[in-house]
Queue: 4 jobs
Job 1
Amino acid sequence: MAALLFLLSLIPAFAYIKEGELYELIGPSIEDFQKEFHGELRVICFYVPFSSEYTRFSSAYFHAAKELAKQKLPLKLAKIDATNPKNAEYIKKYDVGGYPAIVYFPAEIDEFYHYAGDRRKEAFIASFKEKTLKLREFADTDAFDKYMSENGLHGLVLGVFQEFSGTKYEVFREAAKNLVHIYPFAIVKDKGEWFAKFDISEEGILILRAQFLIGPKDRAAIANHKLENSTTIEEWVKHNYHPHISYFTKETKASFDQSQAPFVMFLFNLDPAHPEEIKQNLLNFHESANPYYNANFKDRRFLFVLADKKEFNKGLEPIDLDKDKAIMLTVMRNDRFVLREYEIFNDNGKFLKLNVDAYIKGLETNSLIPYVKSETTDVKSENGIKILVGGEFEDKVVNSELNQIIFTYSKNDRLTQPTLQILEDVAFHYKDDHTLEFLKIDADLNELKGEYNKPHLPNIFLAHKENKRVPNRFVDADITKEKLIKFIEDELTPKKEDL
Ligand SMILES: *[C@@H]1O[C@H](CO)[C@@H](O)[C@H](O)[C@H]1NC(C)=O
């Protein structure tokens, strides 16, 4: 027992446990949770396990967490066992009385509030969702202008009202609640200046396009005065916020996922430290590329998006994206990149229209080669095992006429080294058999294809020369040299008899 406690105390404090969408916090990990998700609404429930209230309550809380996670709202739900002495300090700190008790912290705020609402799943969902709503408010038009000039890639959905009350205002808030995790929303109270600024005559919503993304056919601001109900507002915002070209980040990716059209991503160096450079690049881009992305909404076969290459560099490392203004065209379907290393600008900043033409043609005729993650290496073989990289898979596996043993691994997995050692012994055992080849592929650096791509690593596959796409996997978790040799013999012997 003492040894176990000792081991537990070695587990770093930030290693909190996650049960589905719920975080289980213990002692100081509460602090880490607060820090890590400070920008989101944090909800923490203190509970006494096995109490009858808790059983009913926890099911509602758990299912609410699951549902809310699906909606990708900026919030995190956690629970804390009130009977664990390690948590006593926090019970005091957050002034918790009866159980279960819920406290929450709005985004960016350190103050805590006690949740006093209904304890059914639907109530949790509605209430927590409401609490994530952050509506920016501009005191005057200067504050607004400043915001827009500092956010060249983000537009704004702005509600202009005479009073922050009334049916129109409520309907707007309702729509904002459902969309605020995708688009920035703000409200202003008009004393004459806002109606004048936007040349409108009544209360309504405006979509203000991101200034760097305004293409030649886009109006910088469009207004809607109807505000019928939240559904019609949501539709209108979704349709008009990104008219021709959008700004795309990993975070906003989810809001594009319903789209059937593939993405054409233009990867730019969007370093916020150099706004003038971004502006100049995008101006060049709009001037020359707008014939490609200006098709009517219904007729668009591709969604054109701009993205920061830094965000998408991971997975694209083998390709040199490091040039200053560098630009590359990629298309993405279900997370798969298809790409061409065409540049959009030459070294003098001149737009290379021919490259865009060639790329679009390639997309339309499906002739672009999918991108395969593949890290080249100078080492060809280690201890009798050849080194395979992602890009060589067709050539060296599918087209090979040998039987092959293929080891797929991640360097950091604790089973990798011991398994590799056994494999090397077995490779040595077969060193004189020239019909059998041993290969290994590092799954951290290379894409695994088809049947070779299994969620758990490491794996050993036997790929028969007749059927490379459907290999047999060695499944005994307790691997030994003898077992592996037996597996290979069993797999290959009947084939020898066939001859
Ligand atoms: C919202 O308004 C539209 C248009 O008037 C209508 O068709 C729709 O049924 C309304 N939806 C709700 C939920 O009231």
Job 2
Amino acid sequence: MTFTQARTKCNQYGSYLSYPRNDDDGIKLRGLLNEGRHASWIGADDIEKEGTWRNVKGEDLTYLPWSAGQPDNMRNQDCAWLGINRNTMKWDDRDCGNQLNYAVCHKSKITEGIKITSRK
Ligand SMILES: [Ca+2]
Ligand SMILES: [Ca+2]
């Protein structure tokens, strides 16, 4: 699924595409994503304004644990994902139209997140 499809799916669950708010959230997400083996979209993008990363609610993000050398905006990458480094779960920006198999929708606690999958 693309970033937009992931976001829409979460909205259909009455939820939103989750994004880690701190290192602790990152560790919990890593657990949900099979110890980081499952590459997943996270709810952060700079679609509206290049270089300004916002969550899916349109709020500016302050917690932005990028992987080394990221975000590089290569060929205009505007959406964040987890999985470039399965150990640290640091972020990378990538093409919003790429197909990823996983996304995590937020619930009351990130540990209760709904993991949605789409395999082709
Ligand atoms: Ca960008
Ligand atoms: Ca990138």
Job 3
Amino acid sequence: MTAYQSNRGHKKGGRLVNYTGPCAARVTGFGLHGSDESRVAKKSVDLLVRTPREWVAAVMADFNAFLADHANCERKASALAMSMVVKYPDRQRIIPGLIDLAREELAHFAQVYSLMQARGIPLVKDSQDPYVNELIALMRHGRDERFLDRLLISSLVESRGAERFRLVSEAMEEPELRHFYRDLWACEAKHGHVFVEMALVYFDAAVVYARLHELAGREADILRRLAIRAALH
Ligand SMILES: [Fe+2]
Ligand SMILES: [Fe+2]
């Protein structure tokens, strides 16, 4: 029996762990109207630079450290989704989606923690994430501007996570981990789109995509400067 299996539960350490797959939660549907559907169909999250191969090498060289950091990233992603529910209780059309996201990220945390337990790797205290901190510093003031930036920065972080999980999956020889990261890749790519869809509920497509493109350029600058380490960012 493996520590991670999608779409089923299993006994681990005498305890049943229920996994319903990395993308178990339904994080779709924000009550868009007919004319809105074409806007959603247009959705795309294009990262402007690729992660360097050196990053993959650093992760593979200290995979245990990467797992511990990854667990913290999933936990923080869940907390971030719920913090948006707290910050924006009036944005009712996206609250169910945010709750779904929080659940899904928490499920990812549980899955990564399970992998860590199986390998005898302890959780570590949170450390500074310079990539995320620099992105947060780009958020504008003003209620609407900040709300839009928060959604779009979240989208970029999710899309970058997806790209990196794909790289980890491709480099991984251990089948269990290869499949786990392949599933996560698909899931985080979906999250990247979900945050753009949420933005499209409240803002014009032209505004959303112009700002997304602008932020993607800044994300690329940050990534180019980022020190390479065995961590998600
Ligand atoms: Fe996740
Ligand atoms: Fe995610």
Job 4
Amino acid sequence: MSMNPDQQLSECNHNYKRTSYMDWDEYFMALAFLVAKRSKDPVTQVGACIVDNENRIVAVGYNGMPRGCSDNEFPWQKTSKNKLEEKKLYVCHAEVNAILSKNCSDVKNCRMYVGLFPCNECAKIIIQSGIKTIIYMSDKYDYKIKTIAAKRMFDAANVEYRQYTPKNKKIVIDFNEINHTGVCYPENDFSTNESNCIEDGQAISNLSLSSPKKSKSIDDA
Ligand SMILES: [Zn+2]
């Protein structure tokens, strides 16, 4: 949803720096949720994002079949009369896929953002990989023996874990937003009679942009 200019201005500080930007935790958790959208699992879509100490993303992953095991042939159902047709035998969890797809030599001392608290199998691999911190969104399976075992191992191995409390319930990605970005500051005395826009920290005459009257961000206010 677009904001009106007053709302946008109120979210800028004295040097017009935008103050409503995402913080790191929200950004990386949102990425974990975004990559989960790639999952083919009809019940649970989980994503994970691994970040190093300089806030660089070193890996993302989501729950899926191993390479070469076709999404269209291997089973996605949780239970089946034929035990060989249950997904748990095949699906790689997001945490493991992320660790194995890292774009650096190792993930020692990194932190992992993940939608669900890791299971015991992932916990083993997380510990062995050297990841030191888990930030998770949901612990809805905290009663399960797998989760209890995972926490037991994390505690023993000094892997920290903390639940993320989202600042916003939802983050909406509006692909059309890029077509009406820019905050107008009509009170600024620039060389043109037209109002001026601030975009990416620079003053830009909106003569080169769309007219504020036609700007969707204003029309939507
Ligand atoms: Zn797992």
